[in-house]
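Standup, Tuesday
Yesterday: got the pipeline producing structure tokens again.
Today: sanity-check two examples.
Blockers: none.

Example 1:
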Amino acid sequence: MQKPVLMWLRQDLRLSDHPALCAAAAKGPIIPLFILDDETPGDWRWGGASLWWLHHSLAKFQIKVPLVLKRGRADDVLRDALKKTNAASLHFTRDYAPWSGALEQRVKSICDDLTVECHRHGGFLLHEPESIRNGLGEPYKVYTPFSRACFGKGEPRAAKPAPQMDFAKHDLKSEQLADWNLLPITPDWAQGLRDHWQPGEAGAQNLLHQFIDEGLSNYAEGRDRPDKAFTSRLSPHLHWGEISPHQIWQTTRSAMARAEGALDGNGEKFLKEILWREFSYHLLHHWPDFPNQPFKKEFVDFPWAHDEAALAKWQKGETGFPIVDAGMRELWHTGLMHNRVRMIVASFLIKDLLIPWQEGERWFWDTLVDADIASNAASWQWVAGSGADASPYYRIFNPVLQGQRFDPDGAYVKRWVPELSSVPPEYIHCPWDMPVPPPNYPKPMVDHAAARDRALLAFKSLKKETL
């Protein structure tokens, strides 16, 4: 009787273009296993929005395969499963969180002890972090040469179809997804997420093709407009592995080829955003403390303010700056925020309020459906000026001018801040300038010009201290 193959699923909840699953299926009958690992470090356990997505992604995946669900320490669960099933081999997709390398090494040791073949596969990234090096053989610290190096490696491998699978009979008892209580207890929040998302592999493919058909031709310029639907919204599907970066890359390249050059500028811009995700994981792999500590060490001593009341106003979207409040309310309602607005709200928290970027990163971790440890950290540190290849600290977004430029008619603001729905476009980003300001909208919590001066003074004092 042929021994089964244990397929440990992680953030790779798809069937197509799945190197680990293809390799496992080629070895023999498989046992698909997903583990809700209780040993993830406390600060980095999945937040509420992520757990909502995970529940629905697993529910969709269970329709396709007889998935075994287990909760506990991943290495303990795997040891027990390997013993009970007498599996010949274990296959899984590599993870890049700071603690995952040690976990994967423990799993390898377990397999060695049990004389089980252990196979770790790629598939979450286009390029493994060790494979992209500069001329000195060192990791990159600047995005542009990193992206050039990625393009210089040639086209990534082609995406592969789902494998033919046989499923092994076994005695492992699966836990019930409903018993994990992953869904939020706030019904109205869950409804907002349901209204905007279709977790799962089919939802990812639908969204990709919708973007290619409707958004790609306007991407280069339109991606900065939160009032327009020109972004892909694929980030949560990528994060949960419901679609691979190879599939997105190949589909985009195919669309560019069909357009015979008409999409080249927009397509290249979009592919560079895929490479920003790659760069974020490159940084995380080589500097594992990246999510917690500033990459530029002089920022360790930055004179941050610690103002819980101000942080709460920012979190609730009650700052008095319409574009900031719209973004924060969009985040709470949908689990996502437009990328341009993410930069605006991050700049406001860090530079207008002088609140540490880690506080914003933490809030995003809990509320984003695409809460990705590498991209989240890289983006927050970019705005803070403390990251690799970061925007200079003295680049401080004016929320009024940003709103006027990227939401000129106020359509985005009016969607998420309904108390401003009757404000004329010329006042929508500065309602306090109206002869009679809206009575049910808060006044600005800070004077932006004064806050900007305070932020620059804090940065100047830091530079003096670290010289």
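Example 2:
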Amino acid sequence: MVIPRHVGGVVGEGEVRLPVMRRPAKTLNARLVQTVTEPGKYFDGHGLYLRVDKNGSRFWVQRIVVQGKRREIGLGSPDFVSLADARLAAYENRKLARSGGDPLQRRHEARAVMTFEEAARKVHELHKPTWKNPKHADQFINTLATYAFPVMGKTRAPDVTTADVLQVLTPIWLEKAETARRVRQRIGTVMKWCIAQGWRKDNPADAIDKALPKQSAKKGRRKALPYTEVAECLSAVAASNAGLSTKLAVEFLVLTAARSTEVREATWVEVDLKAAVWEIPAERMKMGRPHRVPLSKRALAVLKQAEGLDDTLVFPGSRKGRPLSDATMLKLIRENGYPVDIHGFRTSFRTWTQERTNFPNEVAEAALAHLSGDAAERAYARSDLFEKRRKMMNTWAAFLAEKTAQVVRIG
């Protein structure tokens, strides 16, 4: 029995109405796609067709209705996109469009997604103004460039996996424990930004705890000299062949109990030689508060020696306009036989105040730019104890001078 097909009208008795299909689904095959050269449009399903131009160019195209408007979406060349991949893309596009979405908008958003390296550099750019120390900003991007970018720098941010992070961290997790922890933290910071962008829902840096071995090495305290040996160290520094700026910076750091960065980046604008005070602005202090440092006679003498080294920086580095590096100062100390850290001189000073003086705890802590007492106490104690600190720093300088006079170096 012949069953007629009806586009419209009434179905007669004994007749069966079939669904109307302009073109059957999946009419193409892989061989036809590979061999067809005749110009024209070769239709498949879900609005997908292969367009062959007169010049021989061939493209996958999908006709689709997006939010009430008829659109055509290019899906690439059949030389790179197989028939199966084109069908899958067409199906996904149609499914999205039927739910009210826009396949073209999704494609634009996907193209806007950054690689991990691009995202990391963007995060670095955003955070850089908030870092007080330029060294920290450099370390953020340099450690990622060294360890993370070679492994997953070109991977799209949404595609970064825990396996990628594990591959970055495994070689250095035990050998360079502290560096590895910082790299992991910085990867996590980048991933959090990607989550905020809506590119992913998870942070792969947080999901690898059980995959990494336990780091047994604990971060040790910075090595410090006994306060009785500090004067001898300064004598060795003064007698060395190091540059004048480096030698003066080390002594000034010890005399003021200041941090390395505070000394190395000190400028003449901050120093008042007549008032014997060094005023460090808040933006250069670790705690973000301005700090006044009373200068002893010996500290003033050091500054007098530094005059003329640079118009801006008190202790310039070898490159004009650039401060000394922390590594340069550390190298000088260690080359002279003192295996300690620059920051450790603050510990030497603090131990001296505890064991050899009667200066109150809050005065010594104020000299180190530390907060003492609880929040309520600090709310009422507004003084920076400057004059008491001046007396203490003069006593510290006198102690070092006395010890220096007793030093007899042999050889």
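Quick observation on example 2: Residues 1-21, 376-382 have pLDDT under 50 and may be disordered. The radius of gyration is 36 Å.
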